[in-house]
Design brief:
This protein is mainly beta. The chain has one helix and nine strands, in the order αβββββββββ. The protein has a five-stranded antiparallel beta sheet. Strands 3-8-5-6 form a four-stranded antiparallel beta sheet, with no helix packed on it. β5 and β6 form a beta hairpin.
């Protein structure tokens, strides 16, 4: 069994994101490309984000800190600390409305 603190990891990667030129930092928490399930912690500084991209499978986004906007087409969803957003099975993007850390969980399509 493995245990880790998402709070400590979020704090660490928010510091890294603040120091990075692109305002982002990420780490795989569980799984990876060879697994069906993958969990990734993403830290983004306010105003940065991920451009529109395809969804590789079923996915959720748990907001650990801050506020984000998930957008797909003409629809936007705002998430804040403690919110769980279900990512649509369509092209989507993510923007940090304030410094934010999120846990992205993806189950790849078979």
């Amino acid at each position: 069994m493995q245990k880790l603190s998402l709070d400590a990891l979020a704090r660490e990667h928010l510091e890294r994101a603040a120091a990075a030129a692109n305002g982002r930092s990420a780490t795989t928490v569980y799984g990876g490309h060879a697994h069906t399930l993958r969990q990734t912690l993403l830290a983004l500084t306010a105003g940065t984000g991920l451009a529109d991209h395809d969804n590789p499978g079923e996915a959720t986004l748990l907001v650990l800190r801050g506020r984000v906007r998930l957008s797909s087409g003409e629809t936007d969803w705002e998430g804040r600390t403690g919110d769980l957003l279900v990512i649509p099975d369509a092209r989507h993007g993510l923007e940090a409305l304030e410094d934010a850390a999120v846990l992205l969980t993806v189950a790849k399509k078979g």
